[in-house]
Amino acid sequence: AERQQQAAEAHAAELDARCKELIANLDAERAEHAGAIEEWRGRLDAEHRAEEKVTEQYWAMRDERDMARGQLRAAQQVVIELKAKLYDLLIAGEEEQDGEFEEK
Predict the structure, then answer these.
(1) CA distance 68 to 90
(2) pLDDT score at 103
(3) In this predicted model, what pLDDT tens digit does every residue of 31-85 receive, in sequence order?
(4) CA 57, chain centre distance (Å)
(5) How many Å apart are CA 47 and CA 97, to the nearest integer?
(6) What is the pTM assigned to this prediction?
(7) Distance, CA of 33 to CA of 43 (rounded, Å)
(8) How many C-alpha atoms does 78 have within 13 Å on its Cβ side?
(9) SS3 string of the chain?
(10) Separation of alpha carbons 34 and 36, rounded Å
């Protein structure tokens, strides 16, 4: 009976040691995976920030493009108005010359 008791205690000690080893291995794996998870979290956060920056740049460029289009339209309108004035001056000049020729 005493031998069985000692064998049972020895077996229990082996099982206890094995359980502690398994727990230590699980803790090590958990720590390893936690590091990988944090690394991926950092990468995803960096990618998200980069996407936000690109999106902001995209909208800023669209705003600049829209402003440039507005300026182009305004400049085109000024050119049209200047051409109209030039045309009016040319017509007025021709009429004036025609009037001078008729007087002579």
Answers:
(1) 32
(2) 62
(3) 889 988 899 999 999 999 999 999 999 999 999 999 999 999 999 999 999 999 9
(4) 7
(5) 73
(6) 0.51
(7) 15
(8) 6
(9) CHHHHHHHHHHHHHHHHHHHHHHHHHHHHHHHHHHHHHHHHHHHHHHHHHHHHHHHHHHHHHHHHHHHHHHHHHHHHHHHHHHHHHHHHHHHHHHHHHHHHHHC
(10) 5
**49/55 Cα distance (integer angstroms):** 10
Token reading at 14 = 């082996």
Radius of gyration of the chain measured on its C-alpha atoms: 44
pLDDT score at 64: 98
Structure-token pair, residue 36: 């990988």
